[in-house]
Give the backbone structure.
Amino acid sequence: MSRRTFLRAGVLAPPLFKTMTLKKPLEKERARRKRSSLPTDIRLLDVRYDFEEYKYRAPYQFGGRTVDQVTLLNVHARVETASGKQALGFGSMPLGNAWSFPSQVVPYDRSLEAMKQLATEIARITAAYSETAHPIDINWELEPAYLKAATELSRKMNLSEPIPKLCTLVVASPFDAAIHDAHGKANGINCYQAYGSQYMSHDLSFYLGPEFKGEYLEQYVLKKPTESIYLYHSIGASDPIFESDIKHRIGDGLPETLAEWIQSDGVTHLKIKLNGADLKVDIDRVIQIDKATTEAQSRRGVTQWKYCCDFNERCKDVQYLLTFLEEIKKQSPAILPRLQYIEQPTARDLKSNLQNVMHAAAKIVPVVIDESLVDLESYQLSRQLGYTGVALKACKGQTNALLMAAAGQKSKSFLCVQDLTCPGASLIHSAGLAAHIPGVFTIEGNSRQYVPSANEKWKDRFPSIFNIRNGQLGTGVLTGLGLGVV
């Protein structure tokens, strides 16, 4: 699948950027797009960014790693339509390097610094883009330049391991979000109303292949958000389950045990983080969590609840997962019917681990691709390997998430929206995504557990998003212009 590559590259101010030579077929494609440009298309006038730092109230353990702090990347993009209407868009996302750039050879501080420097490069590349286009096309054209910048930065910083594509998507995501947000605002609409032929020059076949000919994204998104969506409460691999698990209480007034969270927020969907290193430990933890949940829900008079298990790619092979499911069924039969899906059980490098086919496991419960999902090629490979579900994430970009949502719906995949401990504006963005994708009924949102301080300035403006009632987020309010965040 070819991309148009009108790209800018360089490390100095925009006037000094060098334009790459285009291959003739791509010149023709670009010219065709220019002839079909629409009055609603936008041109970038200015791109700015800043960082915010927050400490976690409690550490969060997943995939054998522990996180206790977050850096937010905030982006502001000013745009102008062909008819002269201007707007300022906003996007925000955590730089989740522990998840997007896990490494045994690049330390945490070093990978975080690489992401910050990459943000500078992406800001300059984006600011130098001079075409007038739809946000989907802007991201589509710029992503190769972002990836090239990541490769060059890895070399410049002499990193022992290059910046992964997933990491680059995370850094680019708030820029993409700000552009989608600005496009909606400039045109006086919510961005989810901007994905039809009235606003887009290309149908989906341009991005996803001939089977999508004549179709547009509007067929795969809701123009109005669902009124509410269930929250998947995360249970970190080291989080206390029972009172006896707490060595020292935090004492900040927020819940600390699983039962306290269930009672406080009425959660009925629980995401269990497992380390995948010891089968007995993983099975015992799930059984203990089910025991605590059953007791807590019984006190509330609740009889229906759901689990998902996330190994964060730590299972050594698919047999580990199959044995895990067999033992859960044998030791605690009530759990398996409550298990809604399994998320990314084995290594994210699918091409190097083709032996890990998920067909047998997916017959028992949907198996969802997450860390491996970075583009259409990886999605198609995951399908061949037996994955039956797709984890959509705002942190991979609004453009990426929407295209993968369309691909997933076309293949009748199980769809869910996952988190990156997204606080504030990034949670609002993620909630909006979940509320506009048909077939998505849940969203992971754990910033309220681990970094509530980053939510404080947003809670009064969006109380139904940040104050969980009956285990749900009230997403019906996300009808404002652009992404509906500000």
